[in-house]
Amino acid sequence: MLKQALLGVLCAAVVLSIGILIGHFGISKSSTSEPSWVKDVAKDVDEKELTKIPHMATSPGDEQTVQFMLKRWKDPDSGLDDAWRQEYAVYLSFPDPDRPNKVTVVDPSDAELFSVREKEKPYTDDQSHPDVVQPYAAYAPAGHPRGKLVYAHQGKASDYEQLNKTVDLRGTIAITRYGGAGRAAKAINGAPYGVIGVLVYTDPLDINDGLMSDTNETYPHSWYLPPSGVERGSYSIPFGDMLTPYLAAKDDTYRIPRENVTEIPPIPVQPIGFEDAYTLIRELGGDAAPNDWQGGFNCTYNYGGPGFKAESVFNNSDVQLDIYNHETVINSSNVMGIIKGSVEPDRYVIYGNHRDSWVHGAIDPSSGTSVMLEITRVLGSMVKQGKWRPRRSIIFGSWGAEEFGLIGSAEYTEEYFTKLSERTVSYINVDIATFANATLRASGVPSVQNVIFQASQQVSAPGHDSLSVYDNWIKYSNRTSPTHGLIPRMGYLTGAGSDYAAFIHYLGIASMDLSYTYDRTKTNARIYPAYHTAYDTFDYASKYIDPGFVSHQAVARTAGNILIRLADSLLLPLSCNDYAESLEDYLKEAVSLYEAQLQAKAISMDPLKWAVANFRREATKLDELIRSSDLANETPLKVRRINDQLMLLDRAFLNPYAFPEQYGFRHVIWASSSAGKPTFPGLADAFARAQSSGEPRDWEKVHYHLSVLSQAIDGAASMLAEVI
Prior knowledge:
Keywords: Aminopeptidase, Calcium, Cell membrane, Disulfide bond, Glycoprotein, Hydrolase, Membrane, Metal-binding, Metalloprotease, Protease, Signal-anchor, Transmembrane, Transmembrane helix, Zinc. By secondary structure, the protein is an alpha/beta fold.
């Protein structure tokens, strides 16, 4: 039986607990060797324990993982100070096990000419487990639409607009491929044009580099998605429980009427495998779709007549969806654990990973769960032995029902909104720990950049004892910083892709997301190919994602190192000057894109320029104050004051009225954007709308977002200034 040598998580705890300053200034290259404590882990974690049966949210398998987490975190020798389950009554969507969803091609006499596969083809015994849920689109409604088939590319609003110029979409079924637009959007965008049902598939060009055969090309022979593989997922846009927005979903919580739920598909949807999609698309009639709509199939992708070619065996036939999904309110559990701080127990560093999966979930999320369990085992053992206790409290969250829309973490932030807002230093998210085994990938707010860099310099890259994770990372993805020179390229948390969403967007907590990933010069796969399918198993993970689980080790060591630095440093290792650099980059892009047209509308960008310049001045002053202070010998209140300035910086960017139509998005710098521009999201979206419509009220909205930004950035600058 393969074991996961999940190991060596950090724990310079003993060294760092003396409360020295670490990693606040610059990107030092002076301490890049791997500390001896990193190798002080001998226990293997068997990932099979987490993936031996499917554990979709609220299922019996999910309950087994709840008990497994509680057992580990309550272990008398290596557990945490306390651990408990926390339940929420949440709104989830499931298929009917007694009436499987069906997709068929039927002729005018109602004879069935073709039927889409209802379950994926099994290659190993675990893929045949009775608890493997049929592929379905969570939150898509039940229904039985029947109509002519059309090909709508990625289901973007622009795709349907273009298609509607050629084809009458009223009463049609649209087949779309993953990518370009969110899952729910593929149906939401089509419904106004009269589309009555949607099929979604993963095109082999987008996930398999064009490969299609399970005889010798795809899994079980490689990491590529086999022909019957289907990506499941939540077809909802908001995160959190949809019936209780801004309220924790307790039994007695007020719930909005279900018919008032928005931003879910208004029409039935079903995901299918690319082998079945190929059968349908190659028979479509009508004009050829544009070149950028073509995919990996050995055929021309036509729009559809609507419907199939005259010479097709499916001529004059319809596609019928028979969807039996149902929704219910059901209890879902978070598992929480804590190590209490010794000096500042009222300051929290939160580390989270979701626990639920769509099927076995060896990579998503069990790679992250196993990393978290190893970190807690190492830290828990040190606490139980009396060798160490962090300066600040560490909270661990094993979130439930993430796959249905980040529900467990969102409900937690709603329930403890005030306490978390006032006391939380940072949130570390490790969801999928290993997409593959080439390089670290990190995203976060700019203030956490330096602590990630410092930690990654102290961990050896997998298979490279003389090369750090940092130095390996910079080979794969880098940028030139005006301050630091050549450094690894970090991403920003601009959407709601995992459980960091509620912490950064809703609470304004400095957050980050860490994983190991693949070399993007060697594949066009938009994500690891078995994502959300029945093939995301231990066999797949151990053979094709991370043989030997060495990248799991690197992520555990890096994430744990970051955790200790945040929990144990006298001064928080958060950089406001790195934040200033990112604001300046965003400003430069905004001026380039928008200033000329805004000046023509008598809208000035000067207040935004002044605000960013003011932020840079105050960030520089605060760093100079820190440099000139002997903080180890200062009064605790002075250190606490500076730490609070650093901790609360992102809170200053929150505006609850900036994005009234987007649940949970209050951070004016990192909110989700549809404009696709590397600049301030509210400004970018408002400008795109105004440019498209030309309406005076839309240009007024651009001015409004400029004011929101300017005042938020000025407010953040004042947070960094000396206390009045």
